[in-house]
Input
Amino acid sequence: MRYFYDSIVLLLFGLGLVTIVDVIGSIVSRRLKFKYGYFAILSIVVYTTIGFLMAEKTNSALLTMIVAMLMGLYDAIVGWEISQKLKANYGYSKELLDKVTIAHRIFVSNLYAIISGFLGYYFASL
Output
């Protein structure tokens, strides 16, 4: 039961951090004419850090991957909406952005989240 509680707390903390990265990244990219995509490294840092903390708290690769995937899913859906509402500077045309499907965003975000979460788990197990 304790693992479940720790997993929920870390998931919520991770979602909060992802939201902060999305909001700040969107605003900074637009105001400073900086490509929003460069902020993906901060999302990867969040995924890896939460993976590390999950591994330390639960010692469960499965729970770590589930939390990482949920953060990736959140980032692909909610993070995209945040960046759209805040008019992030993607550095691409509107037509090109319209071609990016939700399935593609989910796949790419989850790929990064799973790899980063696994790295966090690996570092915690050393």
About this structure: The radius of gyration is 15 Å. The chain is about 80% helix and 0% strand. The mean pLDDT is 95.
